[in-house]
Amino acid sequence: MIRLHRQWIGLGLLTLMLVKAWLIPLVCLDYELRKDYIAKTLCVNRDTPITMCYGKCYLAKKLNAASQQQERQAEQNYLASLIYQVMNTDSNKLFEYTPVAFLFLDTVQYRYQSSFIDRLSIGSIFRPPVV
């Protein structure tokens, strides 16, 4: 059941990508199929008696609009990728910290006595007054 849903979702996304990639050829195909209708009703020069336009002005407008839309979409995608790179939320730490546990099996104990301890003892300097 889940596999079937994934296949339909994949086919839907593939269709959307193909429509986006074939946008300009689809506009040209639409023009070729509806050339007479466009020349009679949608053309800018339809009121002039002798025209050689045959709706090419309408085609030029549609192609210009499609290319501008693709440029805007590409610019938005670029800006979105830049913002995503700056605000990457994958790692919220500035520094990677991996705690390391050390096991000291051979502990060495050091004993050190300074030779100054006996001479600097407080008892030899500060004594109660002798009466």
- Count the helices. How many? 6
Q: How many strand units?
A: 0
Q: Major sheet, described briefly? A: none
Residue-averaged pLDDT: 76
Oligomeric state of shown chains: single chain
Rg over CA atoms, rounded to whole Å, is 41 Å
> What gap, in angstroms, lies between the N and C termini?
105 Å
- Residue share in helix: 55-70%
Can you tell me the overall shape?
rod-shaped
Name the structural class. mainly alpha
Low-confidence residue ranges: none
Strand content: under 5%
**Can you write the helix and strand succession as a string?**
HHHHHH
What does this structure look like?
The chain is mainly alpha-helical and 131 residues long. It has a domain at 23-86. Helix content is 60%, strand content 0%. The protein contains six helices and no strands. It has helices at residues 2-21, 23-33, 35-42, 56-86, 116-119, 122-125. The longest helix has 31 residues, at 56-86. The protein is rod-shaped and about 140 Å long. It starts with a helix and ends in a 6-residue tail after the last helix. The model has no long low-confidence stretch (mean pLDDT 76).
Offer a quick outline of the entry.
With 131 residues, the chain is an all-alpha fold. The protein has 6 helices and no strands.
Based on the model shown, name its key terms:
131 residues, rod-shaped, 60% helix
Task: Please write out the topology.
Blueprint: H1 2-21, H2 23-33, H3 35-42, H4 56-86, H5 116-119, H6 122-125
Helix pairs in contact: 2-4
